[in-house]
Amino acid sequence: MNHGKPVFELHPNERRVQALASADPRMGRLIALIGSLATKPQGPLFTELARSIISQQISVKAASTIRGRVIELAGELSPAALLAQSDTDLRAAGLSASKVAYLKDLSDKVRSGQIDLDRLQEHDDEEVIEKLVSIKGIGRWSAEMFLIFALGREHVVSYGDAGLQRAAKWVYDMEERADRKYLQQAATRWPSYGSIASLYLWESINRGHVDSGETFSERLNGVQID
Questions:
Q1: So which residues are the signal peptide here (predicted)?
Q2: Which of 34, 70, 85, 211 is deepest in the core (most CB within 10 A)?
Q3: Of 141, 138, 140, 211, which is closest to residue 170 (Cα–Cα)?
Q4: 9-10 and 37-38: which strand pairing?
């Protein structure tokens, strides 16, 4: 893994993006609307998992503050550094008791070799998910985010992600469903590049398109939708 660089740097004229746009014309219109995008650079794999645990169910600002305190206490986010800290000191840094237990479990499994992060790329998506959810505090959604943003897997669709469901409903102009499975309908159109489609759907929220009050067609200023 080449840390410090975005896992995905996507451009409308890139082969994978063009293949997705050709297979799904409506996604192609979304790609044309958004243009290029890139994911944030990722750090070491252990650091990303630890950050994921720290960030659960709190605001981005609070997570950043607590992460900074933990790094100040431990010196770094590494298995040895975290295991060397007492639960009391980690709680004083702002972590809940459950998150302290989760970080210690992650650290112990990585240090003992039970989870070999450097060899995760050798496994398929479901095998990686199975290994990650064996860590306390890591559920399927967190494992899927790790697959996309840390490992750069190209065909991951996180059906439990509420944002993706909402964006899919908007882009594909879907009727209300009691089961909220808009993404399941849309994903059948994506050949091998579910992660890339997901990144464009998330970006449609980030850039204010989904919550603009306009339909997808209106947002495109009258561009014909197939």
A1: none
A2: 70
A3: 211
A4: antiparallel
Question: Which 3 state secondary structure label does DSSP give 37?
Answer: strand
Cα distance between residue 172 and residue 170, in whole Å: 6
Residues (pLDDT < 50) of the chain are 1-2, 223-226
12's CB contacts (< 8 A; 6+ apart) are 18, 21, 31, 32, 35, 36
Extract the tokens encoding 222: 């009258």
Give the model confidence (pLDDT) of 58-68 as tens digits: 999 999 999 99
C-alpha 169/C-alpha 3 separation (Å) is: 34
Query: Radius of gyration (Cα) for the chain, nearest Å?
Result: 19
Cα gap 61→84, rounded to integer Å: 26
CA angle 70, 73, 77 (to 5 degrees): 50
Residue 179 annotated among the catalytic residues of the structure: no
* 8 Å CB contact between 171 and 201: yes
* Strand, helix or coil for residue 43: coil
Q: Which of 77, 21, 91, 90 is nearest to 46 (CA)?
A: 77
151: Cβ–Cβ under 8 A, 6 or more apart, which residues? 1, 7, 120, 121, 128
| 157 touches 181 (CB < 8 A) | no
What single-letter amino acid sits at 64?
A: S
User: What pLDDT does residue 76 have?
Assistant: 94
Structure tokens at 196: 């890339």
Task: Kindly report the pTM of this predicted structure.
Answer: 0.90
